[in-house]
């Protein structure tokens, strides 16, 4: 059993359209803030280029009104890029008109690139970040100074201005990286949880299918019995017509064959539907059976108590066994042990084991191995197998631990007895066959 090299969340996240309503709302907030700052500065008697500032605010207002009237549900990626570039240019121009680095609201220039990091792909985000740095630099160089009410210009010490510039540049890349990373992690976790739900739903559908099969077998029993009875009577009445009598005989034999098939289906279906509990060995065998012929020998050394035959538990154990088989050299051993309080199932293999650096993170979504196991191809999945197994088994009350054990890796799944073990009487025997 081997584990996970990390897939960067950036590889999982994709550019997704942002709701136009969100873009418009954020811009209204920005416009309101710009207008309030302008009014306060003007009221305090600060001297600056009031008309150009108001024109820039009016331009942002006009654009937002136009977008509002267009009223599309979502903004395309291209439209989002154009709007963020517009916002960036507008904020940088306001900075240049109101003191540049001396403007206390200069940090708002970080907003467009932060939004870009949550909605655009890394290449577009980097491009917008570089454009932000360029516009910050330009606005610092060509900035018109603010003047106090008495006309004294407000100028920063050159060293302090340089420090402000560095702070903004560092902020551009820090906030962009942080926002992109958090968004990608949330997206990856959301997708992984969705995959877990799909896996559990599939397992439940397969289990419930048994009930459908049993019901269908029961409903078809009566029509088949009628067909068989009529075929027998017609065969007796058509003794003087050998050709028709032979057809009736074939029809009766076919009805008998259908009855046998339905009895088998009904028995299997009822077993699946009603057998909510089973011996531990049976549950482990059910989990391991899809991987029995994949190369390494799978040995089940467990004679434990009767346990719940839960689809989530079976699917979770199956994923653990699959991972062990993928990286085992020759054998995978499944063992069970119980005491007065806990039941523990151990899956061990003789493969290369887990990378020590990632041992503490095994079970996180989108960790995948890219090493090649002996005599089999590269296991290059999306790294969800162990995450799904861990999620499903923990929902059943289990606690998982991952470790290396000499050659190979070890997974221990430990349940409190009251969460997994049931009374022996819960196990049903074989259903009696229905006769048709």
Describe this structure in words.
There is one protein chain. By secondary structure, the protein is of the alpha+beta class. It has three domains: 5-190, no CATH class; 197-274; 278-424, Heat Shock Protein 90 (2-Layer Sandwich), CATH 3.30.565.10. The chain has helices spanning 9-12, 20-43, 50-70, 77-97, 110-119, 122-142, 158-237, 242-274, 280-288, 311-327, 385-395, 417-420, and strands at 5-6, 18-19, 74-75, 146-147, 153-154, 277-279, 297-301, 306-308, 331-338, 342-349, 367-368, 399-404, 409-416. The strands form five sheets. It has a five-stranded mixed sheet. Strand 4 (146-147) and strand 5 form a beta hairpin. The longest helix has 80 residues, at 158-237. It is elongated. It starts with a strand and ends in a 16-residue tail after the last helix. The relative contact order is 0.12. Residues 215-419 form the Histidine kinase domain. GO terms for molecular function: ATP binding; phosphorelay sensor kinase activity. It catalyses: ATP + protein L-histidine = ADP + protein N-phospho-L-histidine. This is histidine kinase.
| Number of H- or I-type helical stretches | 12
Question: In terms of quaternary structure, what is this?
Answer: single chain
Helix percentage = 55-70%
Runs in which pLDDT lies below 50 for 5 or more consecutive residues are 3-15, 370-382, 426-436
Q: Could you spell the SSE succession in H and E letters?
A: EHEHHEHHHEEHHEHEEHEEEHEEH
Tell me the Rg in angstroms. 35 Å
Mean pLDDT across residues: 78
């Amino acid at each position: 059993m081997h584990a996970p090299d990390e897939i960067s969340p950036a590889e999982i996240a994709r550019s997704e359209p942002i709701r136009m309503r969100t873009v418009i709302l954020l811009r209204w907030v920005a416009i309101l803030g710009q207008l309030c700052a302008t009014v306060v500065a003007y009221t305090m008697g600060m001297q600056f280029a009031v008309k150009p500032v108001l024109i820039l605010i009016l331009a942002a207002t006009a654009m937002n009104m136009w977008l509002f009237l267009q009223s599309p549900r979502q903004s395309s990626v291209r439209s989002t890029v154009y709007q963020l570039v517009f916002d960036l240019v507008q904020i940088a121009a306001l900075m240049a008109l109101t003191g540049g680095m001396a403007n206390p609201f200069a940090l708002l220039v970080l907003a467009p690139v932060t939004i870009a990091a949550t909605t655009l792909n890394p290449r577009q985000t980097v491009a917008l970040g570089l454009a932000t740095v360029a516009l910050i630099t330009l606005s610092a160089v060509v900035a018109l100074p603010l003047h106090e009410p008495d006309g004294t210009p407000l100028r920063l010490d050159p060293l302090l201005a340089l420090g402000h510039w560095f702070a903004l540049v560092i902020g551009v890349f820090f906030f962009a990286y942080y926002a992109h990373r958090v968004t990608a992690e949330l997206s990856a976790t959301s997708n992984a949880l969705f995959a877990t739900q799909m896996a559990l739903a599939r397992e439940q559908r397969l289990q419930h299918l048994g009930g459908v099969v049993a019901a269908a077998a029961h409903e078809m029993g009566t029509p088949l019995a009628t067909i068989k009875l009529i075929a027998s009577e017609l065969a007796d009445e058509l003794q003087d017509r050998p050709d028709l009598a032979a057809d009736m005989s074939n029809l009766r034999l076919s009805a008998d064959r259908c009855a046998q098939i339905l009895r088998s289906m009904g028995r299997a279906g009822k077993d699946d539907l009603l057998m909510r509990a089973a011996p531990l060995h049976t549950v482990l065998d059910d989990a391991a059976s899809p991987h029995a012929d994949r190369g390494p020998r799978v040995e089940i050394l467990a004679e434990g108590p009767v346990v719940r035959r839960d689809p989530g538990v079976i699917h979770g154990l199956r994923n653990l066994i699959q991972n062990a088989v993928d990286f085992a050299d020759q054998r995978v051993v499944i063992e069970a042990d119980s005491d007065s309080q806990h039941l523990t199932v151990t899956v061990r293999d003789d493969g290369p084991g887990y990378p020590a650096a990632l041992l503490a993170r095994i079970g996180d979504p989108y960790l995948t191995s890219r090493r090649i196991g002996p005599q089999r191809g590269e296991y290059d999945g999306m790294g969800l197998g162990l995450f799904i197994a861990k999620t499903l088994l923990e929902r059943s009350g289990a606690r998982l631990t991952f470790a290396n054990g000499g050659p190979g890796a070890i997974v221990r799944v430990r349940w409190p007895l009251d969460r997994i073990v049931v009374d022996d009487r819960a196990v049903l025997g074989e259903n009696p066959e229905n006769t048709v």
